[in-house]
Every structure is written in C-alpha cells, then in structure tokens.
Amino acid sequence: MEKDVVNFHQKFSLFTEQWSPKIVAQMNNIQFKLVRVEGDFTWHDHKDTDEVFIVLEGQLRIDYRNSSVTLNEGEMHVVAKGVEHKPFAAKECKILLVEPAGTVNTGDAGGNKTAPSDVWI
Amino acid sequence: MEKDVVNFHQKFSLFTEQWSPKIVAQMNNIQFKLVRVEGDFTWHDHKDTDEVFIVLEGQLRIDYRNSSVTLNEGEMHVVAKGVEHKPFAAKECKILLVEPAGTVNTGDAGGNKTAPSDVWI
C-alpha cells in the first residue's frame, strides 16, 4: 500500500541532470516522472502511447513538424501516439511527464539524449 | 490529434461546483480531472484501479481507516486499488485527479456526492 506523499519541489532538489526522467510515483502501469529540460531535445514519437506534459516551472515549447504549442506553469498538453514531436526550453524548465512504465524518452529515435526509463528518485 | 493546451487556472474559472470532477484531458484510457473539494467526502474505494491526487491549490487530507496523509500545493499521492479512503478539505482545495476513464468518484459506495464520471470542460 502506497502511503507516501510526493513533494515535487523536494524531489527536484535531489538531482540536477537534464533530460533524465526520474520516476516519483506509479498508478497501475502509469508512471509519473519529473524532468529538468533545457535546450533542444530529439525529434521522436512514441508508437504505442500518448504522452502527457505538465509544466511545473518555466516554459516549454513542443514542436510538431508543422506547428508548435507553448506551455507555461500550470498548463498541460497531450502528445498523441505516433506523432513526431520535439520538446524545447529556452531556459531550464521543470516538467511532470505522465506515461506508461517502460516508455523511453526518445522513442525509437535513439541518440545521446536517450535516458534510462526506470530510474526512481 | 490533440494539440490543445490545458490551463488549469482557466479551466477552474469555468465552474464552481464542488466534488464534481471535470475531465480536461485524456492519455490513452487515462483521464485528467479537475475537482474543487471542501468538507468531508464519502468513504469509498476503487476495486479496479489506483487513483492519483495532485493538489494544485489548498490543502487536502486523505483519511484511511487507520491513518491519513496531508497534501499541500505541489504534492501528489497514489491511493492504492481497493483501499478505503475519504478525502477531506477544511477550506476549498483545487485538485487534479488522474484515473482511468469511467472511474466513479464514490466507487461503489454511492450516496449524494456521486457525480457523473464523463463530464468534460
């Protein structure tokens, strides 16, 4: 039985790495991951799942091939399954990702920003 | 393809009812619901799913039969499948629930706080 309270601010104080999702909670097979992001990520998609971005601090832009969305603190966005996207943040931005366990941050695209998908903090 | 940005503050400005979850986004079969809560809810459990509470504003206490957890803004908690719980807020509190589509707010317990589980805003 999970009786823990997760405090996002406290969890962020435990790491400084960027583009390296840290799992803080799980509901059924869905994981909640904190990530520090800055600069440009890799173009990728997730073949089998939608993906949720919630901005906790800062500003995040998610580029699509023909458009983009900009998220500020207190805003969320769902990237649909199979749709190519590329997150970008001009300054460091703190986000909460919600996605199924095992989802790899770069999808099948690979590259040097690929991070382990199973790190709890 | 979902290209909308959900702003929690703006969505809360659209309703004042309490204990009446409003769906703002869906990822696969998982829904994100905004709720205003105040006072005591009904003891209940969810037989088939865990449930996530994230506090966006205010303070929420979740009572268990033999313990409780208190969540402030920027904190989250997972209520495990099948475990009886009762949310409580001394003053109005704004929360984000994450749970599978079709999850009823009172589980099988019923009562006058049971709300429709399919209202989008």
Question: What's the topology here?
Answer:
2 copies of one chain form a homodimer.
Chain A: E1 5-7, H1 8-12, E2 22-27, E3 30-40, E4 51-57, E5 59-63, E6 68-72, E7 75-79, E8 86-100
Antiparallel strand pairs in A: 2-3, 3-8, 4-7, 4-8, 5-6, 5-8
Question: Can you walk me through this structure?
Answer:
Two copies of one chain form a homodimer. Chain A has one helix spanning about 10; strands at about 5, 20-25, 30-40, 50-55, 60-65, 70, 75-80, 85-100. With about 120 residues, chain A is mostly beta strands. Chain A has one domain: Jelly Rolls (Sandwich), CATH 2.60.120.10. Chain A is globular and about 45 Å long. The two termini of chain A are about 20 Å apart. At the A-B interface, strand 1, strand 2, strand 4, strand 6 and strand 7 of A face strand 1, strand 2, strand 4, strand 6 and strand 7 of B.
